[in-house]
Amino acid sequence: MADGVLAGKTAFVAGGSSGINLGVAFGFAEAGARVVLLSRSRDKIDVAVAGLREAGYEASGFAADVRDYDAVEDALKRTHEADGPIDIVLSGAAGNFLAPAAKLSANGFKTVVDIDLLGTFNVFRASYEYLKKPGASLIAITAAQAVTPIANQIHACAAKAGVNMVTKCLALEWGPEGIRVNGIAPGPIADTEGMRRLAPTPEWEAAYKATIPMRDYGTKRDIANLAVFLASDAAGYISGTIVDCDGASGLTAGSVVRIDKT
Ligand code: NAP
Ligand code: COA
């Protein structure tokens, strides 16, 4: 990891208590940033913050739901009060499960859209007053589903498509103030809740990997490396872009059709 490239910076990581986003939080911390995590579960936040501190990093956290604008705003306000203008905001809270559209309830669809899409708007919108301007870097964690329809994930496909457009609209509107806004579209990442839900058996995992041009899942470190780059001054002219980090799996995502399995 690029030691020191984020030295002195503050990184706010929504959905940062586990999985890919916690991996990115470690990446930011290794690169010198102090990190602030937010997710619903106080227990998960406490464990994640303790892990970061045990590794020697400066970390703190808030228990809040990204669907609750006021709670998100309060966390960002308190981060600003403690650490000053916020340099990096990552929006990665998400929910997903496999459900055929014909069996998905309206509330099931709404729940995922509210967490992923409304949550991303809430996190970025609430951060606006507290960002370092110029210089802030906002990063949304999206997915291949944003551009390629995948069976049994109409909720996540629709939500992440919206996340991509929120990313691009904010890059357009906030660029003049020196705020960069980008997205990362991870491919299937090993040892994550997402892949435990989307490819829950060894057979399913093997079939999935056979469709990936690079023939394997990626790692949390792969996503962290990209996030550190996008957050750093080295990416100073990159904004409004969704970067795939997926072993080329986005090219074949549409072939992962599992209508028969659910
Ligand atoms: P994960 O470990 O379940 O991460 C989700 C995080 O979001 C958790 O920290 C969770 O903590 C938090 N969260 C969920 N709902 C929330 C809410 N309403 N408010 C606040 N925080 C909330 O899953 P993951 O697989 O690592 O996924 C992380 C991100 O990568 C997601 O955006 C996902 O769509 C994206 N992604 C993953 C993959 C993959 O291969 N896994 C591929 C493409 C994209 P709490 O439970 O404490 O709230
Ligand atoms: N299949 C179909 N519908 C489902 C479902 C599933 N596997 N899981 C939940 N739902 C539906 C529920 O039935 C409910 O709809 P209803 O009121 O019509 O019955 C709706 O979704 C909301 O469920 P609820 O459990 O109240 O939502 P929540 O806000 O407590 O949790 C989830 C959100 C459902 C997304 C939950 O799985 C979660 O917290 N996920 C976070 C972790 C995650 O998904 N990680 C992977 C990221 S890629």
Jot down its keywords.
262 residues; alpha/beta; Rossmann fold; seven-stranded parallel beta sheet; 7 strands; 42% helix; 14% strand; globular; binds NADP nicotinamide-adenine-dinucleotide phosphate; binds coenzyme A; SDR family oxidoreductase
Report what the structure shows.
The chain is α/β, with parallel strands linked by helices and 262 residues long. It has a single domain (10-252), classed as Rossmann fold, CATH 3.40.50.720. The chain is built from eight helices and seven strands. It has a seven-stranded parallel β-sheet, sandwiched between helices. The N and C termini lie far apart (40 Å). Bound molecules: NADP nicotinamide-adenine-dinucleotide phosphate and coenzyme A (COA). NADP nicotinamide-adenine-dinucleotide phosphate is lined by residues 15, 17-21, 39-41, 44, 65-67, 92-95, 115, 141, 143, 186, 188-189, 192-195. The site of coenzyme A (COA) has 14 residues, from helix 4 and helix 6. It comes from Sphingomonas chungangi. This is SDR family oxidoreductase. One of its GO terms (biological process) is fatty acid catabolic process. One of its GO terms (molecular function) is 2,4-dienoyl-CoA reductase (NADPH) activity. Keywords: NADP, Oxidoreductase.
